[in-house]
Amino acid sequence: NAGVMQNPRHLVRRRGQEARLRCSPMKGHSHVYWYRQLPEEGLKFMVYLQKENIIDESGMPKERFSAEFPKEGPSILRIQQVVRGDSAAYFCASSPLQGHDTEAFFGQGTRLTVV
Amino acid sequence: QKEVEQNSGPLSVPEGAIASLNCTYSDRGSQSFFWYRQYSGKSPELIMSIYSNGDKEDGRFTAQLNKASQYVSLLIRDSQPSDSATYLCAAPPAGGTSYGKLTFGQGTILTVHP
Q1: Which residue in A70, A86, A64 sits closest to A32, CA to CA?
Q2: Is A93 an interface residue toward B (CB < 8 Å)?
Q3: Which of A48, A99, A103 sits opposite B101 (nearest CB)?
Q4: Which residues of B89-106 are buried (b: 16+ CB within 10 A; e: fewer)?
Q5: Which of B90, B25, B21, B61 has its CA nearest to residue A93?
Q6: Chain centroid to CA B101: how far?
Q7: Taking the mean position of all CA atoms in its chain, how far away is CA A86?
Q8: For residue range A78-111, what is the model confidence (pLDDT) as tens digits?
């Protein structure tokens, strides 16, 4: 049973380019969460999605960042016009259901470097 | 006050000792707590979850929750060098519907030396 799959593992983008990060949840999981971990900082929630719905995007920067989880295919975190401050590890997590005892499992992450 | 706060450490213990990691939280309505382990350059790995007051044991790990004191801890018995990592305490928001939306503490760096 494959875990949460993220790709690419490493991504290098020049300033101003677009970055697309993909996440396939664990089999049977329909809830996806994106987190960002800046160098020397903790994990910060960005967005929570279910299929075709954004449930909570309270942690998303107001500009340049967007996320989707289409009916078919992986969840995508998109960063437009990247800047050096976007360099971070981006983790996706998934869970099977919703409730106070929800356990979220993380993928291996995408390390984004903006040069 | 941070919602989830941990002693950032670093914490250093000798091999075979008990490592004690602590976490406090500010939201009295929080019902569940999670401990993740993160090796350098790797992703967080869920090692313990606890929902009720008291202790929960799993192998060498024991999680303790005291809701009255808003305190949760993780004990690692017989610490091994392979336990050296950053340990993250996390909790979802009380109420609401975003239970997988976790607030993480800053993490405690644990080093187990031979």
Answers
A1: A70
A2: yes
A3: A48
A4: bbbbbeeeebbbbbbbbb
A5: B90
A6: 16
A7: 13
A8: 999 999 999 999 999 998 866 656 688 999 999 9
